[in-house]
């Protein structure tokens, strides 16, 4: 005999003890306490997970902001920096399967806490080379370092140079060669980023599932949305931190800053890149502390105790669709096997290949997967080298570049993702509409990107590289053109990079190659006189002066940079709008029992085929546009000092645009398949049909509420990809 809730309260109020099933009947007071305990515990976990998302997004974006700093500090090419950047994805892939499978059986909060410790250890390891590889040495002529010794930049005769100064200089070089020849300290940066990827692995799968398991069902989407929103803030602070550290000299606290002869505008300048990693590592440690005190399980809400399926799954499984219901029961059975409730483990393994065949037999899924892989190749490469592009193309400093990206571009991406979800919710867009919105977003985004080809700056006027010593532009063998009649009497090296700016507005690779005979002052205030190559076109025989540093780019460059920022922000927003509709398209055309598997394959493919290779081949392509390579102290090619602005623009934007165009063709194919499979009367598509393809059904039976899907899904890794 069942007892109503009112009768139950009446019996308890009269202190009458009845033999009741504890799992079926509870007093209002105990239920209220349990609800408060559940809500309190899940909210604490939500706050801790949000902080962890912030920490991992901050450290990931900070790495992007230090790409050029690492390249100069370790004297390595862009292609090698791309390998370092891709090592994070490699570390993530090493253990993602183990964490996803075994993590759910163990203490999930503590595994996340351990991941935070590993992530912080990797972040600290990235910064460690700064404390072991000695002080940073940049190329400078001795007279600009020591004002007490007057040395002629144009060494017409070695006797002009004090023997002690030359001897001291060569002694320092020879002493450093033995140590440098046997060390490749950039490997520690690679290993640290690899370790950071390993530590970050359990955060997303275990954290999101923990919220989904113990949160009230209608609140789960809101909680996940809060986590993703906080994650967007991480890159903003990451790039702003990169901007701050880029202004500080790399050896701050270890050397006298007054003795530094270069400024943050110099091509050889290296900021305090390591300082941000120490800060990010400390934040990761703090973020992991709360998880060690959270329970393995939280009390489940009453609304979820008696239901074996979620409301989302129930929407896909209808009473008439027996085949669909049967497949879901099979999914539940396999899930129980994985939890150790059944000894029949091998049958679940036998279901893997049929599921994989079913998934890859879905043309919509395969085409969308191909489109996403190619598009993420485009976006990852573009974002990784965007700071370098801005610095080299528009002559901006690393500090200003990071500040602009963090304060303008990242918020535009966040607003675009939010707008895409809002459009889907407000207009209740179906699968076909989502495909159109995703395609339109990509098309107009890359169309805007095409306009950036016209918003570049001309090459800096560098004598012997981009212009002749007479001021005319030409293209010949750059190395042979470094010497001219005006510096033929000087003993100069073509490997040096110590640029000076002549009063004629032309940059010279070194004071020696400019034919300068004398200098005064020291450090940043050094002025060179009697420079035979720094003559104006009107009076080429007139000797002129020069100052330390590169000359500013053309007068139109600041205006072009402003145009670039405006178009870049609009492009970032436009491309981001299509992220959520595309993700919804992916979910709605997959059978319910294959959704998790499909998302796993999707994430794996993006990481392996886009996250790892894109930074590498983008870096290789960018290296081909280098005009002047630096030289290591012991010989060998170092980091690039000067790029061909026009070639860099065509390679960087061209590669991004070509990949984006190919992805658009795949998106058009997705739309064509969806149109072919939809009826004119009803374009609403559902997750049923043979081989997992999207088929049509009546709106009454199989319409999927777009509100629910918008709230419960998110675009993975959006905080670091754009």
Structure in words:
This protein has helices spanning 5-13, 28-65, 67-73, 78-102, 108-127, 163-181, 186-200, 203-214, 217-247, 273-288, 302-305, 311-316, 322-338, 346-350, 352-360, 363-384, 386-394, 398-426, 431-450, 557-577, 579-588, 595-611, 613-623, 645-677, 699-702, 706-712, 718-721; strands at residues 500-502, 507-508, 518-520, 527-531, 544-548, 626-631, 637-643, 685-686, 695-696. The protein has 722 residues and is mostly helical. The chain has three domains: 39-148 and 183-300, Up-down Bundle (Growth Hormone, Chain: A); 356-458 and 555-679, Growth Hormone, Chain: A (Up-down Bundle); 459-552, no CATH class. The strands form three sheets. It has a five-stranded antiparallel sheet with strand order 2-1-5-4-3, with no helix packed on it. A two-stranded antiparallel sheet has the order 6-7. It has a two-stranded antiparallel ribbon with strand order 8-9. A hairpin with a 5-residue loop joins strand 6 and strand 7. Helix 16 (363-384) packs antiparallel against helix 24 (645-677). Mean pLDDT is 77; it is low at 1-38, 143-149, 157-173, 307-329, 331-348, 681-693 and 695-722.
């Amino acid at each position: 005999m069942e007892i109503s809730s009112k009768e139950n309260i009446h019996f308890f109020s009269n202190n009458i003890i009845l033999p009741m099933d504890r799992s079926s009947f509870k007093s209002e007071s105990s239920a209220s306490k349990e609800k408060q305990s559940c809500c309190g515990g899940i909210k604490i976990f939500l706050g801790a997970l949000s902080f962890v998302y912030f920490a991992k997004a901050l450290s990931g974006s900070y790495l992007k902001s230090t790409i050029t700093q690492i390249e100069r500090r370790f004297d390595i090419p862009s292609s090698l920096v791309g390998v370092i950047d891709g090592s994070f994805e490699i570390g993530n892939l090493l253990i993602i399967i183990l964490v996803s499978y075994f993590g759910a059986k163990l203490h999930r909060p503590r595994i996340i806490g351990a991941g935070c410790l590993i992530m912080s250890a990797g972040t600290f390891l990235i910064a460690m080379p700064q404390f072991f590889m000695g002080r940073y040495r940049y190329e400078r002529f001795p007279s600009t370092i020591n004002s007490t010794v007057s040395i002629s930049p144009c060494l017409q005769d070695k006797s002009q140079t004090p023997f002690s100064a030359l001897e001291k200089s060569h002694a320092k070089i020879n002493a450093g060669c033995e140590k440098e020849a046997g060390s490749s300290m950039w490997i520690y940066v690679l290993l640290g980023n690899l370790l950071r990827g390993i530590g970050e692995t359990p955060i997303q799968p275990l954290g999101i599932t923990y919220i989904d398991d113990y949160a009230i069902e209608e609140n789960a989407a809101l909680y996940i949305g809060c986590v993703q929103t906080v994650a967007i803030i991480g890159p903003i602070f990451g790039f702003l931190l990169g901007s701050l550290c880029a202004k500080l000299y790399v050896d701050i606290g270890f050397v006298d800053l007054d003795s530094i002869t270069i400024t943050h505008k110099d091509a050889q300048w290296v900021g305090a890149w390591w300082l941000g990693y120490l800060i990010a590592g400390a934040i990761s440690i703090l973020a992991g502390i709360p998880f060690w005190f959270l329970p393995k399980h939280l009390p489940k809400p009453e609304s979820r105790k008696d239901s074996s399926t979620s409301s989302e799954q129930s929407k896909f499984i209808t009473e008439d669709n027996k085949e669909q219901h049967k497949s879901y029961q099979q999914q539940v059975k396999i899930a129980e096997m994985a939890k150790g409730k059944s000894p029949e483990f091998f049958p679940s393994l036998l279901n893997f290949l049929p599921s994989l065949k079913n998934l890859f037999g879905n043309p919509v899924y395969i085409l969308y997967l191909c489109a996403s892989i190619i598009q993420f190749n485009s976006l990852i490469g573009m974002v990784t080298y965007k700071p370098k592009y801005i610095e080299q193309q528009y002559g901006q400093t690393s500090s200003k570049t990071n500040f602009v990206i963090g304060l303008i571009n990242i918020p535009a991406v966040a607003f675009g993702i939010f707008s895409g979800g809002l459009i889907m919710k407000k207009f209740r867009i179906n699968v076909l509409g989502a495909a159109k919105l995703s395609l339109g977003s990509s098309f107009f985004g890359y169309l805007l990107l095409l306009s950036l080809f016209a918003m570049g700056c001309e090459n800096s006027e560098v004598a012997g590289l981009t212009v002749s010593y007479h001021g005319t532009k030409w293209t010949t063998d750059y190395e042979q053109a470094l010497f001219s009649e005006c510096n033929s009497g000087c003993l100069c090296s073509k490997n040096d990079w110590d640029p000076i700016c002549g009063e004629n507005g032309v940059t010279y690779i070194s004071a020696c190659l400019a034919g300068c005979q004398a200098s005064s002052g020291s450090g940043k205030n050094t002025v060179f006189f009697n420079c035979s190559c720094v003559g104006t076109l009107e009076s080429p025989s007139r000797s002129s002066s020069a100052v330390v540093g590169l000359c500013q780019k053309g007068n139109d460059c600041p205006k072009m940079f402003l145009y670039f920022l405006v178009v870049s922000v609009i492009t970032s927003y436009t491309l981001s709008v299509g992220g959520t509709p595309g993700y919804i398209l992916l979910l709605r055309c997959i059978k319910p029992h294959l959704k998790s598997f499909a998302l796993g394959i999707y994430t794996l493919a993006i990481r392996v085929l886009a996250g790892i290779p894109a930074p590498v081949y983008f870096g290789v392509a960018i290296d081909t546009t280098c005009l002047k390579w630096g030289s290591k102290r012991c010989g060998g090619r170092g980091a690039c000092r000067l790029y061909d602005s026009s070639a860099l623009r065509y390679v960087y934007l061209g590669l991004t645009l070509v990949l984006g165009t190919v992805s658009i063709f795949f998106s058009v194919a997705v739309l064509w398949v969806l149109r072919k499979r939809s009826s004119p009367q009803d374009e609403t598509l559902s997750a049923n049909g043979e081989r997992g393809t999207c088929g049509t059904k009546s709106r009454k039976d199989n319409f999927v509420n777009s509100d629910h899907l918008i709230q419960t899904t998110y675009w993975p890794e959006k905080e670091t990809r754009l």
